[in-house]
Amino acid sequence: MRKILRDVFCAFSLLLLCACIPEIIPYESILDTPLRHHENGMKLLHAGKIEASKSEFNRCLEIDREYAPGYVGLGLISGIKGDYSNAMDKMNFAGLFTRNRHEAALVHVGIMRIYLMGGEQISTDWLRKTEEHYQKSILLAPEVPDAYYFMGIAYKVALRWDKALQEFLHVVNINGDFAAEASNYISVIQETRKHM
Amino acid sequence: MIKKTIFFKKFIRYSALIICVILHAAFLNAGENNDYVQYFESGKINWTKGILQSKGFSSCTDKDKINGDIDTWVLEAAIQKGRRNLLKTIYKVRIDSTTLVEEIISSNLDIRDEILSMVNKAPVIQQKSFGDGTIEVTLEMDMLFAFSQLILPEEITQIATIKHVLNEKRKFKEETGSGSNQTMIPLENTGLVVMATGLDVLPSMAPKILDENGEQVYGSTFASRNFAVQYGMSAYVRDFSEQLNNQRVGKNPLVVRGVRTSGTGFSDIVISNADSSKIRSSSINLSFLKKCRVVIVLE
Question: For chain A, which residues make up each domain, given as ranges?
């Protein structure tokens, strides 16, 4: 009887000891997330560091192969390089993987940006197609300033000053991303119109 | 009495309608009855015809906010959903006993992009509009040709022409011209049919037929790539009927019985050593294996 009690006590002690072992948490850096790599990629892209941004977007897709903004980033790089067909392919891939209305809206903004880059090289009807994607984007996420901003730029390129001004004012009112740039454009357009 | 007559008339009318619907459905499905189809939440894989199909639905909830053709918007959204489902179905295609397409896509960026391009180009084969503004589309993608070329293992290569070695008896008959047209020499086999019902085989794009010692009787080293790409390494059917499968395995196929599956993926089939020696007995058999004239019968 004593022997049994001793064995039970030993087993119980062992279990208590095991309970004290710290839980092993797999290492996961907070910097190594698709979101962070996408943000870095966009910053590098706007700074003109294309290859560095490409590796950031590729890393996004290595971590999560269905991360739509990663494809949008790669599409923008192809657009900058002048490969508009590949750029559109990448945007279409992104469209397959959108997980919410915000991501879907950003895909439409991506397509708008490709039309803006390629203009008539992609389609003679590029402005109307940009408008189509703009409408889809603001329907999906009216709070995202990106669509208004790039539509404003598209109107500016097409010399439709009134419409451009309206879009840039919208961006300033949202007071999020691109607010400073939109404000600058408003000043530029107003200056230009004074001299016209 | 009048009530009874009205009830009877209604009963007849509804019964006729139900019978018509059942007959129509049976007629529509008649062509697919023999096909081996795997169903998933995202779509289906028809292993007999080598096609993938998925559906996408969409309806419009923000009608007032849209400036433009609402139907076009809803249709585009339905197609997009259909494409997503098609991609999810593609992920589930088994390449061989150990690999799914999903695993290849994860590891190879070029293949992933090619497949995504194919998905984006997949045609809409059916479109249904419902009264409430909902649109349903069915998209289809071929598993043969471009998809097969991309996915089939590299070890499936082009095989040069196989020279036939006639057996002595046949050679003698042909040389001497002796014997009538109805000779006693058995006819040459024109294809291979593997009866694998009841084995819970999972279909794959590159299945292997093994003997009981684990030696390959048919697989990637036997099939020629151009045939595998065009016709698939084997066709899977539910029921073997000569009329339907003549085109694939010819008029005189060698029929063998699967004993069990091999490996973890349940797509490789083991046949008896006696059957495997029948297949290996003639160079002519190697020739039809090269041309992928193989049909696997599943339940």
Answer: 33-133, 143-196
Q: What is the mean pLDDT of each run of 10 residues along chain B (299 residues)?
A: 63 61 45 83 96 92 61 87 96 94 89 94 94 90 96 86 56 52 66 94 96 94 94 91 74 93 91 94 86 93
- What count of CB pairs under 8 Å joins A to B? 31
A93 and B113 in contact by Cβ < 8 A? yes
Q: Class for domain A33-133, per CATH? A: mainly alpha
Predicted local distance difference test score (pLDDT) of residue B299: 82
Q: Which residues contact A155 (CB under 8 A, 6 or more apart)?
A: A161, A163, A164, A167
User: How far apart (Å, rounded) are the C-alpha atoms in residues B218 and B222?
Assistant: 6
Closest residue to B80, CB basis, from A95, A132, A139: A95
Distance CA B74, CA A65 (A): 27
Which residues of A lie closer than 8 Å to B, measured between beta carbons? Answer: 58, 61, 65, 89, 92-93, 95-97, 132, 135-136, 139
pTM for the predicted model, two decimal places: 0.79
B83 with A96: Cβ contact below 8 A: yes
